[in-house]
Amino acid sequence: xxxxxxxxxxxxxxxxxxxxxxxxxxxxxxxxxxxxxxxxxxxxxxxxxxxxxxxxxxxxxxxxxxxxxxxxxxxxxxxxxxxxxxxxxxxxxxxxxxxxxxxxxxxxxxxxxxxxxxxxxxxxxxxxxxxxxxxxxxxxxxxxxxxxxxxxxxxxxxxxxxxxxxxxxxxxxxxxxxxxxxxxxxxxxxxxxxxxxxxxxxxxxxxxxxxxxxxxxxxxxxxxxxxxxxxxxxxxxxxxxxxxxxxxxxxxxxxxxxxxxxxxxxxxxxxxxxxxxxxxxxxxxxxxxxxxxxxxxxxxxxxxxxxxxxxxxxxxxxxxxxxxxxxxxxxxxxxxxxxxxxxxxxxxxxxxxxxxxxxxxxxxxxxxxxxxxxxxxxxxxxxxxxxxxxxxxxxxxxxxxxxxxxxxxxxxxxxxxxxxxxxxxxxxxxxxxxxxxxxxxxxxxxxxxxxxxxxxxxxxxxxxxxxxxxxxxxxxxxxxxxxxxxxxxxxxxxxxxxxxxxxxxxxxxxxxxxxxxxxxxxxxxxxxxxxxxxxxxxxxxxxxxxxxxxxxxxxxxxxxxxxxxxxxxxxxxxxxxxxxxxxxxxxxxxxxxxxxxxxxxxxxxxxxxxxxxxxxxxxxxxxxxxxxxxxxxxxxxxxxxxxxxxxxxxxxxxxxxxxxxxxxxxxxxxxxxxxxxxxxxxxxxxxxxxxxxxxxxxxxxxxxxxxxxxxxxxxxxxxxxxxxxxxxxxxxxxxxxxxxxxxxxxxxxxxxxxxxxxxxxxxxxxxxxxxxxxxxxxxxxxxxx
Length: 785
Hints:
The chain is mainly beta. It folds into 6 domains: 31-124, Cadherins (Immunoglobulin-like, Sandwich); 137-233, Cadherins (Immunoglobulin-like, Sandwich); 241-338, Cadherins (Immunoglobulin-like); 346-442, Immunoglobulin-like; 450-537, Cadherins (Immunoglobulin-like); 545-648, Immunoglobulin-like, CATH 2.60.40.60. 9% of the residues lie in helices and 37% in strands. It is built from 5 helices and 49 strands. The longest helix is centred in the C-terminal third of the chain and has 45 residues, at 663-707. It starts with 5 loop residues before the first strand and ends with a strand. The model is unreliable at 1-27, 477-486, 652-666 and 704-785 (pLDDT under 50).
C-alpha cells in the first residue's frame, strides 16, 4: 500500500540560558514524523537538513548520526542529501503491542560541534489483523427456569490492531431467544454477553447452536466467528459467587516459576454437581495464558513463566468460577510486578577520537551514553574514571557524558592511556559495569635537538698523522632518541666517487645541491670547486589509493539506483590518487567483477560508474561491483575497491537525475577537464625546465673548452694531472672527502685535505680565502641546497 508520511516541524524556537562545553542542545519538544505500518522500505520521511535549518554539506560535515534506545535500524540517513528514509518495514503490533500511540523515540546526534535533537517516529496502525476467538466453539449450559434478561458472559475475541481498527462490536445469528449486549471492560477492551429474551423450555428446544461474530472498526471491517452451543439444563438456581470481586497483588519480577500469586475462592449454595465449582480464565490474552496458570479445583493462581518488569508492569486477569450446572461468576485479579535491580548499567559509545595530539587542551576524546533498564534508584547511575589520569568526565543531558582532556598531554611521558570507565547504579545490591578505552597520543614536534654537552674540549698531540680522528660531537632529538644522525651522500677521497647513504624518496626530496672541492699537493696548493646537483627520479613505488568509496572495513558503501534509470545513469564516481608523479600517477579504472556482468560499466579515465543498459524487474536487487584502479608505471601497480548497489522501486520522478542534465555530473566532468589540463601544464613546464638546464650546462662546457683544458674529463678523476706545458713533470694526486652534518642548522659539507703548492702551467687558481697560508692544514666546505 502507498504510505502517507506526515512531517511535523517544530516552528517555535527555544532560547537556552547556558552553553555547556560549547555545545548547543536541541529544544524540549521533539520533531515528530508519522508513518503507517507495513510501509515499504526506502520510503522518504523528511529532509533533516531542511528541518534543522542546515545545509546538506553542513549536515554531513558535522558527523550527523541517528541513535535510539531500541538499537533498531528502522531509519536510514542519507549523508549526501540529508533525506531521512525508512530502512525496513515496520510492524506496529510487534514494536508496540497494544500500546497506542506507537511512538519510537530516537535522537539526531551532531558531533562537530556536539548537539542533540530529539525526534519521534509515530507508527500508525492499519487494519491488517482480523478478530480471532481463541476457542472456535463456546459451550454454555443454561437452566430452563432462567429469568428473561439474564446475561451470560462469552469469550471475547482478540484483535492485534488498535484504535478504530480494533475490536468494536459483536453480533449473533438471528433467533427469538437470545441477543448480544456489548460491554466495555474499562481498559479499552469490549466483551460480549449473551442475554436471554424469553423463557426456555428444555422439552421443546434442548439445545441451541448460534454463530457469534466479532467485528472490528476498520474500513472495510474484518470479522471472526465462533460457534456458541447452548445446552438447556434443569433448574440450578445458584451461581458461584467470589468472596471478593477485585484482587490486587504485588509480585517481584524475580519470583520463581511455579510460585503462587494469589488464592481465589468462590462459593455456591447449591449441592451436588450444581455446587461443584471449577476455575478458569475468562477471555484471557495469549500473554496471560503463557504467564499464569490456575488450578481448576483449588483456585490457586501460579506463575507459568518468568516476569520482567521492564517489559510488562501490570497484568489484569478475569477469573471465572463455573458450577456443575453451567452457572458462573467472575472476579478481577490485578497483578502488579515490582522492580528489582537485575539489569547492569550499559555504556553506549557514540564516538571515540584516538590518537589525539599532545599539547592540545580541552579535547573531546569520547562521547557516550549511560542506560539502565531498571526503574527508581535501580535505574539511577554514577559514572567515574581513575583519579590519576589527565582526563575528566563531564555530564550532559539525557545521561550523555563527554570524556575530555583536563590538561595538555605529553607524549614523551606517556604514549597511550588505558582508561576504565566505571558505571554503578544506586540499586540494592548495586551493579557495576566497566568499559575500557585505549587513547593513543600522537607526537608533535615540540622538542628541538640538543647537544649532549654545551662545551667540548679535545686534546691532540703534535705531529699527528693526517685524517686522525680527534673526537666526536653528538646531538639527540628528545621525542625520538632512536633516530641516528646521518648524511645524504659520501665521497671517496681517492677517486671522487659519490655514494648515497640513504635510500632516497622522490615524494620527500626531488633534488638537492652541494659543492665539491679538489686540491693538489703543490706549494702553494691549488684548488677548485664544482656544483653538484642531484635529481631524484621517480619510481613506481606507490600503489593507487581509493579515496571514495572509502575501503576501511566498516559498513560497505551502498548506492541506491532506481529501476527506471536510463542507460548511462550515473551511480557514483570512484576517486583515487597515486603518490607517484608523471606517468606513474596516471590512473585508469576497470570493472573487475560484477554480480551481473553487462549491467554496469566503469569509465576508464574518470572512474564514473554508470548503468550499461535498461534495468528490469528480473535483475537482482543487490549487486556487488569490484573496480580495479591501475597506474601506468613499470611495472604497473593497482588497487581494488568494492561498491554495493541496491536497485529500488520507491524513487519518485524528481529524484531520478538524468546523466545529461544533472549539475553534479557537469561539475564532475568540468573538474576532470581541469585536472587533465593542470597535469599537462605541469608536465610541459617540467620538460621545458629540464631542456633549459641541459642547454645551460652544455653552453658552460663549451666556453670552458675554448679557454683551454685543465683536466681530462672522461671517467672518474685520475690519480695524476695532465701536463699541458710539455715539461712532463709528474703532477700530484687529488684527494676528496665530503661529510654532511646530519640535522644541523646550516646543512654544510666539510672537506679536510692538504692544500698543495701550485704547479706551473695549470689553469688560473681560484680565489683563496684569507689566512690560507697554512702549511700542513687543510679544509673546504660545501653548502647543501
